[in-house]
Write a structure and sequence with these properties.
Layout lengths: L12 E3 H9 L17 E5 L3 H12 L3 E5 L11 H9 L3 E3 L2 E8 L5 E14 L5 E5 L5 E4 L2 E4 L8 H5 L29 H4 L4 H20 L13
Helix pairs in contact: 1-2
Length: 232
């Protein structure tokens, strides 16, 4: 997920997944490989989840000064508490109640900073978390050589858009029952594509449930009653 604000296509703006893939799998931090990664001196990570902490701490190890920018406070950060504490212990700066509104370029197509606005916490949203609200006339400039966006992920729409009969939630995830059956006969789903972003362990558990149900269905194909009727 990106922010969809002006300037987001400048060079030097990455998703956290790309940064971590390049560091971990493409050996970007090791001299001599063909996929070097130059982050510059100042890195800003937008977001405060576990992936944001991974991206921030990895950038720190590559020699950058790192700032985590979050529109709420540390108390509302979705990252595990120990992940946040370790990042702070290592010297990463946490900028609370701040949100970018546009990225600025250096005239050569690369990001050089961002215009930000200060936030305050307002009334709770539907999940009970206090909603961040912009403070009028609080804009300021913040320098950045690299920006890493770590705001979470959405399911790839390719499968849902090319598969007739597959029901999708408003979040883009596949609708499944407790054993992973989708609305389309003979199609099961599990993991992040069904639940939204979660852990590998939960995805493995969903796979085991689906596998058991697939075996049971193959042994007694009941195509007329693919999904059991729900009680009113």
């Amino acid at each position: 997920m990106f922010m969809n604000i002006p300037g987001e296509n400048f060079g030097g703006i990455y998703s956290a997944n790309e940064i971590l893939t390049r560091i971990s799998l493409m050996h970007a931090a090791i001299p001599g490989y063909d996929t070097p990664l130059s982050l510059g001196k100042n890195v800003v990570v937008i977001g405060a989840g576990n992936v944001a902490m991974d991206a921030a701490r990895s950038s720190l190890r590559l020699g950058a000064k790192v700032t985590i920018m979050y529109r709420r406070t540390k108390a509302e950060a979705p990252a595990r508490r120990e992940e946040l504490e370790h990042a702070l212990e290592e010297g990463i700066t946490f900028m609370e109640l701040t949100n970018p509104v546009r990225f600025l370029g250096d005239g050569r197509g690369w990001v050089c900073g961002m215009e930000c606005i200060k936030m305050q916490l307002g009334e709770p949203d539907e999940k009970g978390r206090r909603r961040p609200v912009e403070i009028p006339n609080s804009e300021f400039f913040f320098e950045a050589d690299t920006v890493i966006v770590a705001l979470g992920t959405n399911p790839n729409p390719l499968i849902s858009s090319t598969t007739p009969g597959l029901d999708i939630t408003k979040w883009g995830t596949m609708v499944v029952n407790e054993t992973g059956r989708t609305s389309k006969p003979r199609v099961w789903a599990g993991g992040d594509a069904a639940t939204g972003a979660a852990t590998v362990i939960s995805a493995m558990g969903a796979g085991r449930k689906a596998a058991a149900d697939i075996i049971a269905w193959l042994e007694n194909e009941d195509t007329e009653n693919w999904l059991p009727k729900t009680e009113e």
